[in-house]
Amino acid sequence: MSRLVDGAVAAVASPHSVISRYRWVICALLFFATTINYVDRAVLGVLAPTLVAEFGWSERDYGVISASFTLAYAIGFLFAGWFIDRVGTRLGYGVYLTVWSIAAAAHALVNSVAGFSMMRFALGLGESGNFPAAVKTVAEWFPKRERALATGIFNAGSNIGAIVAPLVVPWLALTWGWRTAFVVTGLA
């Protein structure tokens, strides 16, 4: 029995243990979630010329729609950390990811400035949980000496998402329509 315990202790203490490798898988998942987060928020901007033409939005209309996201994102940050601390990173991140995914896809269901503003507001609330959850996940899974590296890796997803959106979204919109672009990116 002590060989089993000694082996388990050695595995956990080893820098190449399963737990050590698993935390890098978690970091990769954080990177992909952050990438998707930024793709979802960029879809509206990429599709703006199409949507402005289809709905006849003024610059003010587009500004209201865009500001709805920013307002909700700022408000959401005030509560996201508290919520994630209260329920834990696994459940908290899951809730926020679900909210932002549904909100992103639901843009396909609306046809008005008010509808797009509501979806952008919901998207902002959902996406506000990404960074508090990701930072806390890094703190839970990584030793202090690796936290900056892990944070840099997952945060690179924000720029990758901003690069991917203008490459993928126009193709989706031209092939299947702008509504499909919101659904595919929202449910990705």
Q: Could you characterize what this model shows?
A:
The protein has 188 residues and is mainly alpha-helical. It has one domain: MFS general substrate transporter like domains (Growth Hormone, Chain: A). Helices cover 89% and strands 0% of the residues. It has 8 helices and no strands. It has helices at residues 2-13, 18-55, 59-87, 89-106, 113-127, 130-141, 144-176, 178-187. Helix 2 (18-55) packs parallel to helix 7 and helix 4 runs antiparallel to helix 8 (178-187). The protein is globular, with a radius of gyration of 20 Å. The N and C termini lie far apart (46 Å). Mean pLDDT is 92; it is low at 4-13.
Distance between the termini: 46 Å
CATH topology: Growth Hormone, Chain: A
* Overall SS class: mainly alpha
User: For this structure, what is the CATH class?
Assistant: Mainly Alpha
CATH architecture: Up-down Bundle
This entry's quaternary arrangement is single chain
Residues in helix, %: over 70%
Rg calculated over all Cα atoms: 20 Å
Helix run count: 8
Shape: globular
SSE run: HHHHHHHH
Spans of at least 5 consecutive residues whose pLDDT stays below 50 are: 4-13
CATH superfamily: MFS general substrate transporter like domains
Give a short account of the largest sheet.
none
Instruction: Report the sheet-strand fraction.
Output: under 5%
Mean pLDDT: 92
Number of strands: 0
Q: Write down the domain tally.
A: 1
Membrane topology: Multi-pass membrane protein
Transmembrane segments: 24-44, 64-84, 91-110
Subcellular location: Membrane
Keywords: Membrane, Transmembrane, Transmembrane helix
